[in-house]
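Reproducibility note. Readers wishing to regenerate the assembly model reported in the main text can use the exact inputs given here. Chain order matters: entities are listed in the order in which they were concatenated for prediction.
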Amino acid sequence: MRYIPNSPAEREALLAAVGAASIDDLFATVPRAVYRTEPPGLPPPASEIEVRRDLGRVAAKNAHLGEWTSFLGAGLYSHHAPAFVSQLLLRGEFLTSYTPYQPEVSQGTLTAIWEFQTHIALLTGMDVANASMYEGASAFVEAVLMAERLTKKKTKVVVSAGLHPEYRQCLRTYLVNFPFTIVEVPLGKDGATEAGALAAAVDDDTFAVCVQSPNVFGVVEGWKAAADAAHAHGALAIGVVNEMFSLAVLEAPGASGVDIACGEAASFGLAPSFGGPLVGFLACRDAGKRQIPGRLAGRATDAGGRSGFCLTLSTREQHIRREKATSNICTNQGLFALAATMTLSVLGKHGLRETAVQCLSKAEYLKAGIRALPGPFSVAFAGKTFNEFALHCGVPVHEVLRRAEAKKILAGVPYARLEPAASAYRDLLLVAVTERTPRSGLDALLDTLRSFS
Amino acid sequence: MSDHGTLTPTEPLVRADARLDQRRRFGSLFDAPRAGRVGVVLPPLDVPEADPAALYGKAHRPGVEGEVEASEVDVVRHFTRLSQMNFSIDTALYSLGSCTMKHNPRINEEIARLAGFNDAHPYAPVHLAQGNLELMWRLEEALKVLTGFARVTLQPSAGANGELAGALMIRAAHVKAGNARKHVLVPDSAHGTNPATAHFAGYSVVELASSRRGTLELSELEAKLTEDVAALMVTVPNTLGVFEEHILEVAKLVHAKGAYLYLDGANFNAFVGKVRPADMGVDVMHMNLHKTFSTPHGGGGPGAGPVGVGASLVPFLPVPTVERAGDAFRLDFDRPDSIGKMRAFYGNFGVLVRALTYILSYGHSIHEVAENAVLNANYLRKRLEPFYHLKYDAPSYHEIVFSDHRQAAMGVHNIDIAKRLMDFGFHPPTMSFPLIVPGALMIEPTESEGKDELDAFADAMIAIAKECETSPGIVTSAPHTTPIGRLDEAGAAREASRPGNFAPVLRAPVR
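Running the prediction on these inputs yields the following structure tokens for the assembly.
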């Protein structure tokens, strides 16, 4: 096999050296009843030529964003990925290394982790960010559990219905065995969390108040209302962001009283890859850092006074604390945190802002076009948005998708796909743009919608 | 001794001005102000420009203060220099035990980057994503063949996330049967994730002391196995690299009490294609695709942690599952007993593509992975046993756990040996784990090493053992050839209390 260097003669030499007559001798302590001498029931080994042919055919069955005009978002947005990023990611020193337990031979990874933490802290307005989480939904769950540890002996978490439904579903999955109650606060007519209902839902038994902005309908939420409601009862405010470019034009959660920021950072140069691998983040105020889950890189110096980075505050982690750890997370999303770091570095201050303004401008152009249409479509909510909004369809949503597909347009994500039970929202289509969407694409979508009038 | 190169580490190059070099090589991009530089150019805006300040009013933010300003050249050079300070599998044998640092084939990377896979949105209509569902279905089928399980969920993001999915399924099954139960049994040799996971699934952890052979002690198991026990979490081969000879008896005991047998599949690399875990009576097992199935570790992820389950746990799998009807594939969300979702979307799909590519490349020869991994580990054991102490001397599978017992008598500890190994061009073993071996040095060569590389590694370890006797100072002050020396990690933890350690201080705290 091409991935096994030893020749048959070398294998024989190794066997002789260990004093074994055959490979089977090495497996002598496996119970004979379960030891298999027949090869597994898989096809014969495939060469690179055959694998390319086989999986190339499989890949070709999918619609990919290079060939389609896409308005798909709903938590995962297709932004520009600078060409050098995917190429540098293939450097073996990044690709084939592991967790930097040994800082002397891992300064590359450690410096990049520290830079990722710094970018996230700057964007969110927080003091400390960790080395990454799996993705946005599980990062959110970890933030909720962290808030509980920081507040102690409270049992209620208040969650806006504007949080991505899959994030809310994950919260239910992970919290099922904890004695906690999840209270959901509905959205108002403008598409933002109803402020009165939010304040009323929070009481002294509440440990976290969770709001996403822009929310799942693209509507911009006010962080401060959530933070004030939380702090009035000794709870912590959790701010969720899954379109990170919004933070180049909208107030940082950390500047508005939010205690823990978390979410999805895939907007920074990651390919959608059918939903993973992505890169979750979690950031908090200095006071919370000893309860943060996952890995953390910090500065350190060697005996010669040279400065470097190492993993720090590890006593929070599972390999030291075992069942008392802040999380069971071990492997995270290192390589894709690196991709996001590279992308953020090259975008920089100016690129972040310019990209955000382009996203906003294109979404506003599309909304204006829809408002001018005579037919059965309207922008569902009056609340301010960034690069995504909910389109109310007076005709069946699937009919809109079908007609758009005929023009190689993916018109959006039907909200019913995310939360089939939310019947009030079943006529909504989530429509997202990025800086990659040309005006011709926006006009083509408008033409499709016009064809219904 | 082999004739593989020289055993004397080379002196670092003498540089003209070490301080200047330090700044260029070690600086972060945040340390070097390059105001006004631009790295990305977008097409001119082709619609009327919106004014965020006017639109958002008080909620407007004029930009991200403190962010980097750099050109593409600055950024490419920075990250290329960073890469040069990393050790990797592509460099040499990476002995980090338990992590299975095997070769990462590049065809896997190429296939995962095919546009149909890489540039596909998870909410694309299902009829436009048939290839992706087919890929997931085929990977599940292949993993079913290799494990003997009824179904496999591909959703968990990494091994620990798979463990949690497994523990939640076990709990859901017990709840459905009327009693959630209270405890999970975990051997004292277990990975740290096991007790952490059991705790997150709402169970208290009861630790089992290992036998003198380092394996499960049946009497200890029987004593602690009550009707309150939900599951036993066991690793095979265990973290000492020893196969649980009595695994069939263990399964019988566990099942007789109505508990489930959870297998931590982190070490599947040692028996893939040789033993199907379901045949051993295992009810649920996670697999680390970044270990056994060669997907790159990426400096700390992404991984993927599929979980295989026996028939009794199938109703509790996370949603959605991928179902096939003829040539068509669909996502099934209608599973009333499901534990729900472990994450957004369907899993680390790009990792799944790499793993299936690897499995197809090996095909029915995949048992050669286990055979060569075990052979290589036994060869290293044979060569190193005269020089390093083995606390548990049961037959080894894919890894060996030596200790610094002999060297400690000379004042040299496992950390010193690990650091000195860097000077010989190898990544150190896993240290101080498992916890039941004081001064542990856990070595896993994997099947990816040829005899020449194994010999070079053994020669280095032996040379260090001799240095410990003749010139221990060179070992205790190592490493001598790396870009930096040993860092003051305790100092780093103290520094962590200083504001600004993790990010520049730009503003007064809000509250």
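We highlight two features of this model. The first strand of chain B starts at residue 151 and ends at 153. The longest helix of chain B spans residues 451-470.
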